[in-house]
């Protein structure tokens, strides 16, 4: 046995070459799967970009439009309570911001009317603030032809229930309170 020292070193060589072949085959298979996944993803992303407005709307950066602070008397008995509100609107884009600015006097009036109908107790609760934000969202969306008050508030003739705007989502995303002081 000691006469042939190379015999022991020859036996492991086939085992190493089998491992190498298996590893190369696995790597090649993974590369093929990765390439196929990449091609599939590229086809899907190309298809999604062809006129799908909803996908592009979700990926756009919002525009924030801060409104001047507003002060309104509350509907509490005695009439000695008031609220100071700082409101910022989150809008889909800059075009919507310019449209909202055109209707700002009407929107501010509507917001002040909404706030003056609330009591301090309503507005001190989180649910009251959330309800007010939802009502303000509807008030801001109405002149743009969206929301539940759009038909009666819009000056356009195409703001009927059957109009395309009635089925689309409003470009006003959220109403954010930057300050909320009740005294």
Structure description:
The protein is an alpha+beta fold and 183 residues long. The chain has 2 domains: 6-48; 61-182, Tetrahydropterin Synthase, Chain A, CATH 3.30.479. It has 9 helices and 4 strands; from the N terminus they run αααβββααααααβ. It has helices spanning 6-10, 12-48, 53-59, 94-102, 104-116, 120-124, 126-141, 150-153, 164-167; strands spanning 63-66, 70-73, 82-91, 172-182. Strands 1, 2, 3 and 4 form a 4-stranded antiparallel sheet that branches. Helix 5 runs antiparallel to helix 7. Mean pLDDT is 80; it is low at 153-167.
Sequence-ordered SSE layout with sheet pairings:
Blueprint: H1 6-10, H2 12-48, H3 53-59, E1 63-66, E2 70-73, E3 82-91, H4 94-102, H5 104-116, H6 120-124, H7 126-141, H8 150-153, H9 164-167, E4 172-182
Antiparallel strand pairs: 1-3, 2-3, 3-4
Helix pairs in contact: 5-7
